Amino acid sequence: MKMIFTMGLLAMSAATMAGCHSDKPAPAATIETVQARVVESQQQQVPLNIQATGTVRARESATISAQVVGRIQQVLVRAGDSVRAGQTLVVLDDAALRASANQAQAAIKAAQGEQAAAQTDAKLAASTLDRYRQLQAEKSVSPQEMDEVARRADAAAAKLEAARAQTDAARAQQSGAHTMLGYTRLTAPFAGVVTARLADPGTLASPGAPLLQIDQAGALRLEASFDESAIAAIHKGMRVQVALDGASSTQLAGTVAEIDPAADPGSHSFLVKIDLPSSSQLRAGMYGTAQFANGVRQAILAPRSAVVQRGSLACAYVLDAQGIAQLRSLTLGAAQGNFVEVLSGLSAGERLVDAPSDRDLAGKRIEVLR
């Protein structure tokens, strides 16, 4: 009886196994098909660009500071004001210096009086000496008398020279006083714009302390620091493309005007000054990037329209041999017109979904739109 039950179980198991190993194939997974345009990556020669960042500045800039100690009476301009060459900008208290100038004038008058008296004495002594010389020729005076008259004439002449020197010193003192008095009125060295006002009336000005900053009117320039490895390719007069933040023109054509002859010892870079074309939209202080081509190189380019952002990653949908889209992350370089350089993630000739926008196309078959 036990043997019959076992045989029955084996028969049922065999029947079950036979059902599991049916020759009918399992249904295949369905792949969704999406229509889209397709573009290709390509290998091209691109310019080998050298670039550096810098700041827009005036071609000439001046810091206005006092040359004498004095309390500021007036500051006649504010930041943003246009000024002309020679215009008075700051007035210092000149009471002490004016008193010195008056003292110098009085000293000149006193010295001139002494000089006039000494000149009269010297003239009288000289004429007396001439008469005694005539008398000496007639042997009417003793040698002792002649010596005394000659000494008096020499002393009078020496006194006159001392008086003249004193007058000259007084005049020099007056000139110095007037020069110092002139330092109490600070003027613009050239026509330009006040970019900073650093002091107000009542402040004590001291030599070297900045009071105003003025930029010269006219065209501006970009001052950029280039690495020493690139400086050999830069020369005065060459054209450079400049991109400026905040300017409506994405690219401006600049010209290399100056190259500093010595490198900065800390950064090993050279300061290059690039003249920019006149534009009402340019302002000193803007940040810009200068670049120029220095040969060519091979690069993999992809249409910018095929590149999408997924989080913080740049990606593209790449088609395999069966036309299935796979999302692949890319490392991008600089833009080249409507293309962008791909540093890693693509090879030349690969097919990419164009303008995928926000669609999730990974794993889907792409039907190419013509």
Largest sheet: 6 strands, antiparallel, barrel
**Helix-strand category:** alpha+beta
Overall number of strands: 22
The geometry reads as rod-shaped
Q: Reading side by side through the largest sheet, how are the strands ordered? A: 3-12-15-14-13-16
Query: From N to C, what is the helix and strand string?
Result: HEEEEEEEHHEEEEEEEEEEEEEEE
Average predicted local confidence, pLDDT = 85
Low-confidence stretches: 1-22
Number of domains as seen in the coordinates = 4
Rg over CA atoms: 47 Å
Distance between the termini: 76 Å
Mind sketching the topology for me?
Layout: H1 2-20, E1 33-36, E2 38-40, E3 42-58, E4 61-65, E5 70-75, E6 82-83, E7 88-92, H2 95-137, H3 143-182, E8 185-187, E9 192-197, E10 204-205, E11 210-216, E12 220-227, E13 239-244, E14 252-259, E15 269-275, E16 287-303, E17 308-310, E18 313-319, E19 325-336, E20 339-344, E21 351-353, E22 365-368
Parallel strand pairs: 1-22
Antiparallel strand pairs: 2-21, 3-12, 3-16, 4-11, 5-7, 5-10, 6-9, 7-8, 9-11, 12-15, 13-14, 13-16, 14-15, 16-20, 17-18, 18-19, 19-20
Helix pairs in contact: 2-3
